[in-house]
Design brief:
Order of helices and strands of chain A: HHHEEHHHH
Largest interface: A-B, 53 and 53 residues
CATH superfamily of chain A: Winged helix-like DNA-binding domain superfamily/Winged helix DNA-binding domain
Largest sheet of chain A: 2 strands, antiparallel
Number of strands of chain A: 2
Structural class of chain A: mainly alpha
CATH class of chain A: Mainly Alpha
CATH topology of chain A: Arc Repressor Mutant, subunit A
Strand content of chain A: 5-15%
Strand order of the largest sheet of chain A: 1-2
Distance between the termini of chain A: 34 Å
Number of domains of chain A: 1
Number of helices of chain A: 7
Shape of chain A: elongated
Radius of gyration of chain A: 20 Å
CATH architecture of chain A: Orthogonal Bundle
Oligomer: homodimer
DNA sequence: GAGCGCCTACTCGGATATCCGCTGTCCGAGTATGAGTGG
DNA sequence: CCACTCATACTCGGACAGCGGATATCCGAGTAGGCGCTC
């Protein structure tokens, strides 16, 4: 999986806590990652409609809707793409013993199981929202650290 | 995911039905794929202990144990490796607002959810065996085609 | 005819090129801000 | 004092290189089977 997914998720959590637009450069510095590359991930989030960008001074990114309405799956699919990891190439229709297409009404059993596993994976990500992540961070991090981070973001 | 996973699974199903060792070249021709590259996947299966190779004339690959004792997850992990797709880089410990390591007793919430999803995915693959796949192929494919394939393999 | 040795052909195994996608970077388009100026 | 204009600096967005891993390939090591020779 693309490593940018992790960055995108962390950025969404940060944006959830920030009340004002946050520039990509500040998010990059906060996480100590490449600003240019993080910008690309944020653009993907923007194209997916999860975040909205504002240009000019005091501009930046902010969430388009409440964090409770954004799932981890939304972010993952925005950055990694919605296509499943496994793609059936219909091996059974090739070679000297190829199954004729009219006999392939039912999908390949292998593909079916793979799709089932993929759905289970996605479902696990769909039931967790950015708000859930932010809440867990809030409860497990000392308040002093959170306040410092808020102040640093606003500065 | 590596495309060779699909080939490896199909090969295991074929080996399940074949009573004698099958050479890699024959498996490749049957599926109409690159013999050299398929050989690499079979070597991975061999290293994982799922299949056993026999050299010399009338040699080839055969399963090391009953197909009911080999899960799809075994094959997937043998070829794609056992490491999860998502790897947490501990972003929270970096940057100006880094969380001190002693405060990181609990894993990053994002990583926890990702690991949970990964376990769900693997569990979906663990409950299906090669024997299950072979049984489904047997019931959904016309007997005449199956017999032709058997004969072609033995020839 | 039986046993032995060798030879051949076939098999796998690992080392070797090639290509595509993720990673990382840059510069141009667009806009909110703020100062400056005129009424 | 207010409103308008403009210059500025900051923002995002898309286009451009670099590298690692998956893809694809090849040749050498090793072995089972078969043939021929000898006894």
């Amino acid at each position: 999986m693309s490593g940018g997914v992790e960055w995108g998720l962390h950025c969404c959590v940060v944006l959830c806590g920030a009340g004002e637009p946050v520039p990509a450069a500040k998010l990059a510095k906060l996480h100590d990652v490449s600003p240019s590359y993080l910008a690309k991930q944020l653009q993907l989030l923007s194209k997916a409609g999860l975040v909205r960008s504002t240009q000019g001074q005091s501009g930046g990114y902010r969430l388009t809707r409440d964090a409770a309405e954004i799932t981890m799956l939304d972010v993952v699919e925005a950055i990694d793409g919605p296509q499943p990891a496994f793609r059936c190439t219909e091996v059974r229709r090739r070679g000297p013993m190829a199954v004729p297409p009219e006999r392939c009404a039912t999908p390949c059993p292998i593909a079916r199981v793979m799709d089932s596993a993929d759905r289970a994976w996605r479902e696990s990500l769909r039931v967790v929202t950015i708000a859930d992540l932010a809440a867990e961070v809030d409860t497990t991090t000392p308040r002093e650290l959170l306040d410092r981070a808020r102040a640093w973001l606003s500065a």
